[in-house]
Design goal:
Blueprint lengths: L20 H12 L3 H8 L2 H21 L1 H6 L8 H19 L5 H14 L11 H16 L4 H27 L5 E7 L11 E5 L4 H11 L1 H7 E10 L2 E10 L4 E4 L2 E2 L15 E5 L4
Parallel strand pairs: 1-7
Antiparallel strand pairs: 1-2, 3-4, 5-6, 5-7
């Protein structure tokens, strides 16, 4: 039985996750030299960028609605629904404002990660937007910015937008991973974890283990990982030296049910799953 006896029984074993969105965003920005000094330089472009932003947003959606492939991805083949267009412009405007303000916050990184999941079909409309169109949209924005910002700062804006796109791509890839594999299970979160995952999530698995299912779910929804996991530092070999990295484990008294059975009393993270299994994340104090 995969039970650790002691003061608090827990589901033991390590989970390997990609960097959290804010960690990836921070590293990319650091690599690109987007530090406080660079941000102060970029703030000098705020006024001309804001002056033109509304026109760029309108032109962007005009172009998206006219081009057959993007119109099809958005469900606009026959007509452009005005209510939906207004909502999309609102979110685009909010993103544009945060971008012009050079937002590098943790919350913005999580927002970008979520946007990537939405583009993968996990939004309210469940529409899939191919990643090449997202890349082209970023290229459109950079081209627009370059018409008004000072030439010596175009490179900073290019790096900042590229870092954003990479974090968004991470969310997209985490969502796409849910559809890879032949074993199909349902995952739900209860109690204090439910707000992070209000609806059951379908997860496809290649190897069919509980470990694989949890790694996919927590990579998809970092807010769930915030609640349920704790980091454990490990040393990994990087060339000629060792680097610190992290693996993750469920916090004490958090567990997972597999078809109603506590995974601690099965084979823990190595529990084999079959199509139709329901996994339930149970926090303490339920």
């Amino acid at each position: 039985m995969a039970v650790k006896w002691g003061e608090e029984a827990r589901l033991v074993g390590a989970l390997e996750l990609p960097p959290f969105p804010e960690e990836r965003f921070s590293k990319l920005l650091a690599f690109a030299g987007i530090d406080d000094a660079a941000k102060r330089r970029m703030y000098l472009d705020a006024e001309p960028l804001l002056e033109h932003a509304a026109d760029w947003i309108k032109a962007a959606y005009d172009a998206l609605s006219r081009f057959p492939d993007t119109a099809r991805a958005l469900g606009w083949e026959s007509r452009v629904p005005e209510d939906e267009l207004r909502i999309r412009r609102t979110f685009f405007s909010a993103w544009m404002g945060r971008t012009i303000g050079v937002d590098t916050s943790r919350e913005f990184a999580r927002y970008l990660h979520q946007a990537g999941r939405i583009h993968a079909g996990y939004g309210p409309e469940k529409r899939f937007v191919p990643p090449e169109w997202v890349s082209m949209a970023y290229a459109y924005v950079l081209n627009a910015f370059s018409t008004v910002v000072e030439k010596d700062r175009v490179g900073l804006w290019a790096a900042y937008l590229t870092a954003q796109e990479e974090v968004m791509r991470q969310g997209f890839e985490a969502a796409m991973a849910l559809s890879q594999g032949r074993v199909v299970v349902q995952f739900e979160a209860l109690g204090i974890a439910r707000p992070a995952l209000p609806e059951p999530l379908e997860v496809r698995l290649v190897h069919g283990t509980l470990r694989e299912a949890l790694e996919k779910v927590f990579a998809f929804e970092p807010a769930l990982a915030d609640q349920a996991l704790e980091a454990e530092p490990v040393a990994v070999e990087e060339g000629l030296w060792m680097e610190e990295a992290f693996v993750y484990a469920l916090k004490p008294r958090w567990t997972v049910l597999v078809g109603g059975r506590d995974a601690r009393y099965l084979k823990g993270l190595d529990t084999r799953l079959k199509t139709g299994d329901r996994l339930t994340l149970l926090p303490p104090g339920r």
